[in-house]
Amino acid sequence: MEQAAPDPERLLQPAPLEPLSHPDAGLESVVGEEAKGARDESPGDGTMTESNFSLKKIEISVSEAEKRTGRNAMNMQETYTAYLIETRSVEHSDGQSVLTDSLWRRYSEFELLRNYLLVYYPHIVVPPLPEKRAEFVWHKLSADNMDPDFVERRRIGLENFLLRVASHPILCRDKIFYLFLTQEGNWKETVNETGFQLKADSRLKALNATFRVKNPDKRFIELKHYSDELQSVISHLLRVRARVADRLYGVYKVHGNYGRVFSEWSAIEKEMGDGLQSAGHHMDVYASSIDDILEDEEHYADQLKEYLFYAEALRAVCRKHELMQYDLEMAAQDLASKKQQCEELATGTVRTFSLKGMTTKLFGQETPEQREARIKMLEEQIKEGEQQLKSKNLEGREFVKNAWADIERFKEQKNHDLKEALISYAVMQISMCKKGIQVWTNAKECFSKM
Fold this sequence. Notes:
Elements: H1 28-35, H2 50-55, E1 58-71, E2 77-89, E3 101-106, H3 107-120, H4 148-167, H5 175-182, H6 187-193, H7 196-199, H8 203-212, H9 218-266, H10 273-288, H11 290-347, H12 355-363, H13 368-448
Antiparallel strand pairs: 1-2, 2-3
Helix pairs in contact: 8-11, 9-10, 9-11, 10-13, 11-13
């Protein structure tokens, strides 16, 4: 009985992975390879050495923001915000003190760094940047990206981004990240010399892969759905918080009206004047506290926004997997086609309609020499195609392994951070309500003494 030809579709299925027992499992094997992302062993001009950066604990802070005016690439004057980054080693091998490296970076340079990381580490959930313009804010808060309060919150967000990258077991070893912290001049040129833009996948290609992949990995489909739901839920939560903040602002300012009424009333009352004046003072203090309270609330909202933007980072990993799967399927399809052509030439039978077969019927058969040459060429192409398919299969399995390890690490981080942020937010709300009760308790005492 003739053995059936192997189904090319079976070649497309990624090997099943065992559950990872630890969120960082599988990462150690690639740290050394990813560390070669340095690509250039020469140290920067900063006071830290590369060995100190990758092997010693360091402190990173974005300590200051400054509004500046300059000219852009179009030679047009623009106003922008620059951020002062300071780094220093916490430990030093010889016990000597290490000077602090400091330099200024624009938001666009942070964007360039993240775009580079997305291209060179497609299997990693790259930490997101804080928003460029304020979203989900209560109406009394300015959405202007030059507003001092917004700039301050973005400064904190940029510092958090750098700390996230520095604490990642793979990203922290990248030389471009090291130079971002230590080399002020010509850093952009160094990034562009890596050629990462040429390695970036086009949006059209990514969209094509999304709709044409025949055998997508169910785990990544579920991850994409999860990221969409995460973004939807957090967006809804932030919108609700903004509406509640608006109403809360109104309630607090009404207490300011109470304060004004009690103060005016006290001016025409002799016996009750002191009590009314004291009650009015408590109301005024309570009303004025809302601005600081809602500003503190924005910091908790920013922690939620970070994971709102993390959703897109998860989808970026899913898109890269779709692209790799699509390339794998195209390679398998091309290999199956060449094997069929070779078989048809060898047996002289044509199974499917083709332009080449129609041409042969119209203009006569090929000579044996021509057929042998074509068969030999196809055999060489089949051999190359098999090697390429094997390579793509291994590359895809390695990607899935490393990506899933980093996703597990991210999930553990997410659960810890969101739990902590929501508990802190709840504690803040409880404290705020207790202060409101205390204000009316004080007012009651003032009224009782009248």
